[in-house]
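note to self — DONT lose this again. spent like an hour looking for the file last time. sequence + predicted structure for the chain T wanted, 99 res
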Amino acid sequence: MAEQVLIQFRADKALKQEVSDIYNQLGMDLPTAFRMFMAKSKQVRGLPFEAVLPEENTKREEFRMAFQKLREEAAELPEMTLEEINAEIESARAERKRG
């Protein structure tokens, strides 16, 4: 086995706990996840995920146009009563409970 070194760094406590919980749910501890990150970084010779800035900032007009498009799409949907909405929600919850 190659010589091992200790790597230390500071991180936000809450962030560390959240990430640790995620990895625990995946069946691994934080050090194993970081070793996997480093191995993948070596394999791809860079960050193992895309890390780029967007080409340009989204303009206010683009948001307005997107919102208007959504409103137009929503206008085509049939109207639902509150009872119909609640029945649909209840049905979805029952389906989720059944798995």
